[in-house]
From TrEMBL:
Gene3D superfamilies cross-referenced by the UniProt entry: Chorismate lyase-like (3.40.1410.10), Winged helix-like DNA-binding domain superfamily/Winged helix DNA-binding domain (1.10.10.10)
CDD domains per record: WHTH_GntR
SUPFAM superfamilies (UniProt xref): Chorismate lyase-like (SSF64288), Winged helix' DNA-binding domain (SSF46785)
MF terms (GO), sorted A to Z: DNA binding; DNA-binding transcription factor activity
Keyword Glycosyltransferase: no
Keywords, alphabetical: DNA-binding, Transcription, Transcription regulation
Gene Ontology BP terms: negative regulation of DNA-templated transcription
Name recorded for this polypeptide: GntR family transcriptional regulator
Lineage: Bacteria, Bacillati, Actinomycetota, Actinomycetes, Kitasatosporales
Length: 245
């Protein structure tokens, strides 16, 4: 929609800055010479961009969002773990951002059918769940839930702690002999559900990226499944793809 595209471009270019009010419906009707219904449809598109938030009785306000952050496959390099940096902290440091992780839950959970299939266990089997909310420069940008087989984690007490230590959970798994061969990721873009939008401070229906990752050891076992949801306007994905066998 042309009107929505123009408003979004004004936000991205800085004509409308963080904290500014988007012009009211009546102002937009006068500016564009269209009906109110057309403006309301355009504002649905603008809100879906994730660039504004609607406050009851006040209208739409341009959100203060941190700049886009590159998410690269290099974040899983073993050298980062040996240097004591988990993937999220390593990539945030490279981009010059201030990172924070809030742990929401750590404990046993029954594996859903999808998670169980990925881990190679029966549905309903007890696994360790670790759910986190990630912040960049004070803004929530990502949620992540890790699921690990109970027989793998039961003898690694650090994995039950909020801070598993330098290098994160992958470093602790490797300390106990689970050496990684690869990380397999599947991504899907979709609109955020109401609860997801609230958790990530997005407008309802704003685009998010749903990522599922399997951490596979050299023995071919999946020792972690990570279910991640990211604010789509905050990430650019970059992957290295070998051109040879």
């Amino acid at each position: 929609m042309q009107i929505a595209d123009e408003i979004v471009q004004q936000i991205r270019s800085g004509v409308l800055k963080a904290g500014d009010m988007v012009p009211s419906e009546s102002e937009l009707v006068e500016r564009y010479g269209v009906a109110g219904g057309t403006i309301r449809k355009a504002m649905v598109e603008v809100r879906a961009s994730g660039l504004v938030e609607t406050r009851h009785g006040k209208g739409s306000i341009v959100k203060d969002r941190p700049p886009v952050r590159l998410r690269s496959s290099d974040r899983f390099r073993a050298s980062h773990r040996r240097g004591g940096k988990a993937a999220y902290l390593a990539e945030s440091e490279q981009s010059g951002a201030t990172a924070k992780v809030s742990v929401l839950y750590i404990g046993p959970m029954e594996a859903s059918a999808d998670i169980a299939e990925r881990l190679g266990v029966d549905a309903g089997t007890q696994v360790l769940a670790r759910r986190r909310l990630y912040f960049r420069n004070g803004t929530p940008v990502e949620t992540a839930s890790s699921y690990l087989p109970w027989d793998v984690v039961k003898d690694i007490p650090e994995l039950f702690a909020e801070n598993p230590g330098p290098g994160g959970i992958y470093a602790r798994l490797e300390d106990h002999g689970h050496t990684f061969a690869e990380f397999v990721e599947t991504l899907q873009a979709r609109p955020a559900a109401k609860a997801e939008a609230s958790e990530l401070a997005l407008s309802p229906g704003a685009p998010v990226v749903h990522l599922l990752r399997d951490a596979v050891t050299k023995k071919g076992r999946v020792v972690e499944v990570c279910d991640t949801l990211m604010a789509a306007d905050q990430f650019v994905f970059q992957y290295r793809i070998p051109a040879t066998d």
